Amino acid sequence: MEKLRFERPIIKRIETGMPNKFGTKTEYDPISHIDGVAVADLIKKYGSPLFVVSEKTIRKTFNDAKRSFYTRYPRVQFAWSYKTNYLDAVCRVFHDEGSWAEVVSGFEYDKAIRNGVKGDKIIFNGPDKSEADLEKAAKNGSMIHLDHFDELYTLIELAEKKNLKPKVAVRVNMDTGIYPSWDRFGFNYENGEAWDAINRIMLNKKLELVGLHTHIGTYILSVKSYGIAASKLSYLASEIEKKYGHAIKYIDMGGGFASKNTLKGAYLPGTDTCPSFDEYAESITSGIINSEIKPENLPFLILESGRALIDDAGYIIGTTLANKRLPDGRRSMIIDVGVNLLFTSFWYEHKITPAHAFTQHTEDTTIFGPLCMNIDVIRQNISFPVLKKGDQFVISKVGAYNMTQWLQFITLRPKIVLIDLKKGVHIIRESETAENFIRMEKTPEHLTSRQE
Amino acid sequence: MKIKKNIAVSENGFVFDPTTGDSYSLNEIGTEFLNLMKAGKSKEKIQKEIMNKYDVDEITFEKSFHDFIKMLATYQLIEDHEEK
Q1: Which residue of A2, A13, A320, A359 is the best one to mutate when testing the B interface, meaning the one whose CB has the most B CBs within 10 A?
Q2: Which residues of A touch B53 (CB under 8 A)?
Q3: In terms of domains, do A306 and A365 share one?
Q4: Count of H helices and E strands in chain B?
């Protein structure tokens, strides 16, 4: 007779009427395959943990967003936010779909060039652009988004010295009714600083003012704020039209659209609370269309959305290392994915799902990563199915920021694979080796000669 | 170790402790374990029965058994949690 599948025995107190910080069960079905490829096979071939990127999901999400804006506004351009995920393979999927590049450093700028993006299709943001970066961007005809007056004057000097006419946009920060209001980047709208910057550019004539830019924040759930921001930028554009007879070529609304992840402390899951692309699009395009910008001068609408376009396409799959009991009887589960790989677990309640069939029973669980650090917590409180050592799991919606903000800390970083549209699996970043780090370190001679 | 005599275990895995009024739910294996323990079977006998019926090795059984006893002790469902 075939033996039955063994599950660890559990007993759980039934608590009625009391809200429980562990919440209710969230996982009902295993995720055994990603885009038709078995999780178990991926781990067997490429190791555990492993980041998995779905090309199909990137393209689908991008086209959903595109449709939402294209059906509401005649001139829309997306620019892929490199810092969200600058793996070359990922960037190239976005460029293949028609995205320009939005970069925030010389390193990212060069990456975009290597990915085949033409200079005049690169938007250069950020507070740290060196003179060499600015010169390169100006010569390539890239759109330089000014962050502060020091940068503005550096560029004016450069333009004189090198006889260039750099294309610039003014980054504007503003009150859109949300908290926190991002005010560290660009020039302020309400106190007139943005107008000051515009006037200096227009009167100086060394630079070509091509756009206006804002980025109101990140994971913004209020679509109305985008409408306010779009109206304010459009007002500036129409005033420039009136005052200087100069038509702004584009309005760049930045990014910050929420992905479907659930923020820590949120009562409802992100899938229920995050606005759709249609809602963001409606608010933004209405703000521009309803402004006083002359119809013949209607600017391009540029979007730099990152998180909302890539989060769903990224997974990290891994293995249960151990289960143990904490002093209060709570179960703690240790997995091989730590906060060094999953940086976003500091602010998201990540969805974690067993990769194999499981019963309806759950235990109140804290999920820890493998690092010997107290802060290495992936989920503080979760009502989770019973997994045993060696069981595999899938953490979903991790495509944004984790593959750029991850740390080499305590352990080495794993491989990243991309599943293409035909279920082909490609390594898009190799796992690190000790040699990578040995190569970069140098030991002073007086320490190398010491013998035990 | 002895399970409190007065606790009630239903066939489908519900436990009621009349001393505290608390109720508990068990998974399938938990129900098996508790019923075998309630019947006064030794750890060795429980191990034999479970290993005959389920696909489990000795080490996994050992780890699971001790974890389960610890939870019963946490919920104060055993009278004497010294193993005999």
Answers
A1: A13
A2: 3-4
A3: no
A4: 3, 6
Q: Average pLDDT of chain A?
A: 94
pLDDT in tens, A137-178: 999 999 999 999 999 999 999 999 999 999 999 999 999 998
**What is the DSSP secondary structure assignment for residue A103, as one 8-state letter?**
E
Q: For residue B77, which residues of chain A lie inside 8 Å, CB to CB?
A: 11
Contact at CB, B15 and A9, closer than 8 angstroms: no
Average pLDDT over residues A107-116: 98
A240 assigned to some structural domain? yes
pLDDT at B84 over 60: no
Which residues 3-22 of B are in CB contact (within 8 Å) with A? 14-15, 22
> Based on the structure, what is the number of domains in chain A?
2
The torsion region of residue A423 among left (phi > 0), alpha (psi -120 to 50) and beta comes to left
Joined tokens for residue A446? 């007086």
pLDDT, tens digit, 9 for 90 and up, residues A38-51 = 999 999 999 999 99
Domain topology for B2-78 = Arc Repressor Mutant, subunit A (1.10.10)
Q: Report, as an integer, the average pLDDT of A325-344.
A: 93
Residues A227, A284 contacting (CB under 8 angstroms): yes
If 0-12 CB within 10 Å is exposed, 13-18 middle and 19+ buried, where does residue A97 land? Answer: middle
Shared domain for A277 and A391, answered yes or no, is: no
Range 22-61 of B in CB contact (< 8 A) with A: 22-30, 32-34, 50, 52-56, 60
**Using one digit for the tens of pLDDT, what is the confidence trace for A221-270?**
899 999 999 999 999 999 999 999 999 999 999 999 998 899 888 888 88
Give the residue from B64, B70, B81 with the most A CB atoms within 10 Å of its CB, the best one to mutate: B64
Has residue A10 been placed in a domain? Answer: no
Alpha-helix residue ranges (DSSP H) falling in A131-260: 131-139, 149-162, 193-204, 223-244
Which residue of A3, A9, A13 is in closest CB contact with B68? A9
